[in-house]
Amino acid sequence: QVQLVESGGGLVQAGGSLTLSCAVSTSLFSVNSMGWYRQAPGKQRELVATAYRWGSTHYTDSVQGRFTFSRDNAKNMMYLRMNSLKSEDTGVYFCKVEWSGDDYWGQGTQVTVSS
């Protein structure tokens, strides 16, 4: 079992920035992939950014150039730096890892962008 805990959400004005954090209970070197997802009200959960154990990071088109995924392997932490936030970025943000063939999710953190 792997536990993930997100933090850093909140209310921000359009154009502002937030950094989300995700604490992972296992070594990031042991996961096959990791990433951030979001779910807006009334919509399906969607991928925001994903990274593979030894590979590059990929972003959904709507956040490319504004969001940055990063990781601290020593601390087993993932981050999502979000700049130039827009109202359409509002939603619950989840971190996820794929470990030993299964997906593990955090509980989510709310991000609200006011216009």
What is the strand and helix layout of this fold?
Blueprint: E1 4-7, E2 10-13, E3 18-24, E4 33-39, E5 46-52, E6 57-59, E7 67-72, E8 77-82, E9 91-99, E10 102-105, E11 109-114
Parallel strand pairs: 2-11
Antiparallel strand pairs: 1-3, 3-8, 4-5, 4-9, 5-6, 7-8, 9-10, 9-11
Q: Number of helical runs?
A: 0
Low-confidence runs (pLDDT<50, min 5 residues)? none
Taken in chain order, the helices and strands follow as EEEEEEEEEEE
Structural class: mainly beta
Q: Supply Rg.
A: 13 Å
Separation, N- and C-terminal Cα atoms = 40 Å
Largest sheet: 7 strands, mixed
Please report the total strand number as a whole number.
11
Approximately how much beta-strand content do the residues carry?
over 45%
Apparent shape = globular
Mean pLDDT: 96
Proportion of helical residues: under 10%
3D structure, described in words:
With 115 residues, the chain is mostly beta strands. 0% of the residues lie in helices and 55% in strands. The protein has no helices and eleven strands. The protein has strands at residues 4-7, 10-13, 18-24, 33-39, 46-52, 57-59, 67-72, 77-82, 91-99, 102-105, 109-114. Strands 2, 4, 5, 6, 9, 10 and 11 form a seven-stranded mixed beta sheet that branches. It has a four-stranded antiparallel beta sheet with strand order 1-3-8-7, with no helix packed on it. A hairpin with a 6-residue loop joins strand 4 and strand 5. The chain starts with a strand and ends with a strand.
